[in-house]
Description:
Layout lengths: L2 H44 L18
Amino acid sequence: MNEKTETGQQSRKEALEAQAKLRRERAAEKLRENLGRRKQQVRARRSGQADETNGLPAAKLDES
């Protein structure tokens, strides 16, 4: 292989690795957010407060 081809393959590999790293970071952030929501729900249940997200809002009957 010539130097130009190797450089192109190397930069493509680096770009793919960077994309994979960003994807892992986003997934980790989403997991942390989800864990925080779940912990908040557990704390709310322990303290006797109602869950804010109980059921689907669109499915509730409008009692006006």
